[in-house]
Structure formats: C-alpha cells, structure tokens
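Notes to self after the Tuesday call (sharing in case useful).
The group wants a holo model before anyone commits to mutagenesis around the pocket. I volunteered. Ligand is acetoacetyl-coenzyme A. Logging inputs and output together so the record is complete.
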Amino acid sequence: MMEIKKVGVLGCGLMGSGIAQVCAMAGFDVTALEIEQKFIDKGFAGIRKSLGRFAEKGALKEPADNIFARLKGTTRKEDLADCDIVIEAIIENLDEKRKMYASLDPIVKPAAIFASNTSSISITETMTATKRPDRFVGLHFFNPVPLMKLVEVVRTIVTADDVYETVYEFGKKLGKVPVRTSDKTGFVVNRLLVPYLLDAVRAYEEGVGSIGDIDVAMKLGCGYPMGPFTLLDFVGLDTTYYITNVMFDEFKERRFASPPLLKRMVMAGWYGKKNGKGFYDWSNPEQPVPQDAALRGFAKE
Ligand code: CAA
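Result:
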C-alpha cells in the first residue's frame, strides 16, 4: 500500500472545506484549490469556526492553530503537483469534473490517487478523462463532514486493488468508518435515503400529515436525528432534485422520480436552509417555520 502524506482538495465549499478540515485534523498536509481567493477565505473561515467548536469541547488533540497551519489554500493547480491523493469536491457537473481532472492529470505526479466526493455522478464516466483510471476511486463524505462518521469508498471495474485498499485505510486514518461499495448510482446511502426523502414529499402531497408532524413522527418514532423535511432543507432541495434525476435516469424507477412539489420548489428557487427557504423558512435558524400555508394546493387537506 502506498503512503499518503499530502492531500489535495478541489473546491473549498461546504463539502471541500469539511474534507480539508478532517484531513488536517488527522495530521495530513492539505492544499485546497479554488478558482478565486475569496472562496478559500470563506471556506477557511468555516473551518476556523468548526475547529473552535471542537476546541471549546476539548475534543482536539492539539491546538487549533497547529491544525490550521497544515492547511494551505491556492488558486494554482501546480501547487497540487506533489500530492499523494487529490479529492475532488467541486460542482456536481460531469463536464466540469472531467475538465478539472483532464487538466490536473499531467500536473499531479503519476503515482497519486484521484478521488471524487460526488454523490451521484458516475466515477467510471469521470475517470476516463484521465490517463490513470486504475488510480481513480469515489470517496463520498457526508454533511456535516467533521461530524458524520461515514465515508463510502467506491471502486470501479478498473480500480487497482492496492489503490482501493490505500484509500480504505486512508478513510480510517481520517477517523471515519469506511464502507466498501461500487460505482452504482447513489452508492449505499443515497440508494436508500433518496427514495425515503421522496416518499416523505409524496406522503405530504397525499395529506398524510403536516410538514412539522411528519418530521416529528420520523424523528421521535424512528430515532432519526432529523425529520425528512429538515433533512431535505439541510441537504438542499436543488441538490436532492439533481440526485433524483441522475438516479431516475440510471434506474428508470418511480421511486427515484421527483414528486411535482419538489420540482416546483426548486424551480421557484427554494433550495432549503442555504438560501433561507425550503419546507421551512430559515430566517431564524433557531426556529424554522414550516411552509404548509405557502404550499397549500400541493397537499390534500
Ligand atoms: N463542526 C464542529 N462541531 C459542530 C458542527 C461543525 N460543523 N456542527 C455542529 N457541531 C456541534 C455542535 O456545536 C453541537 O455540540 P454540543 O453537543 O457540544 O452542543 C453538536 O455538534 C450537535 O449539534 P446541534 O446541537 O446543532 O444539532 P444535532 O444534535 O441535531 O446534530 C447533526 C447535528 C450532526 C447534523 C445531526 O442533526 C444529524 O446527524 N443530522 C443528519 C445529518 C445527515 O443525515 N447528513 C447526511 C446527509 S446526506 C449527505 O450528506 C450525502 C449526500 O450525498 C446528499
């Protein structure tokens, strides 16, 4: 197995910054690539805040400043040349991902492993943009990355065994629990989670209960940390809608098809917590207000 010392992270948004943070917390040197410095500043500010929360609880093994010192931000691809693994967390768009990897392939050392944090885009279709498809895997983290213990390690039909095992062990070194899966759309978690979330929207459309009551029911009845509508707002309605379309395209099954209400909300620009409105109004994040009144006409009385 190969030794990983230096990690490159592509994209410093919600997922990318979380991935950079857990890598630095685990002792790796991290270089995060963004297209503009302002995105690095924003991502790193989030990392500082999160490290502060861990520090307050005494949950860090070393001062937050030491962890932060292992993180570098850059807008130059050349700065990733000597990384041992490069983890991509840019926009969920196949062309963008292929373009990014095609441009990095001649720059990053040939022995390095490429990994994608995609939740729904085919690893197989992305890896063919490079000359190292055997050194290409999926490494799927969950939001919020610093707290969620799981990472899905995704192999394709050409992934080399030593590459796969190196990444599996790397997942453990990050303090995560890795699970083995393969490049079938949705992997394990979204394959099961997405139909559940879509069913919650269908149940709401059919008048089974209000947004708040369905959330309380699943939270308290099943011991889930969040009800389905809170989780939808948390993941992002646009993101969920995108994933459902990719999954429906793959499997052509109704359980992966977006209910009309979800589509209407996305078309109207209601993306959930990130832009203030989804199944709840998040103007006051401490007290989200269910939007049943605004969504009347879509749910049976
Ligand atoms: N960094 C550090 N600490 C953080 C943090 C962060 N980013 N976010 C929250 N915390 C801390 C809080 O300070 C709090 O600390 P204390 O216990 O000391 O007070 C603790 O974590 C718990 O946070 P909250 O009290 O705010 O809320 P919570 O108890 O509900 O936990 C949660 C938050 C972990 C997000 C929990 O609600 C949860 O597990 N929700 C489900 C999330 C989920 O399902 N994610 C997967 C989505 S699917 C996906 O990501 C993949 C995809 O492909 C779409």
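Two things stood out.
The pocket of acetoacetyl-coenzyme A is lined by residues 50, 53-54, 57, 119, 142-144, 146-148, 190, 225-226, 231, 235 (CB under 6 Å).
The CA atoms of residues 17 and 45 lie 9 Å apart.
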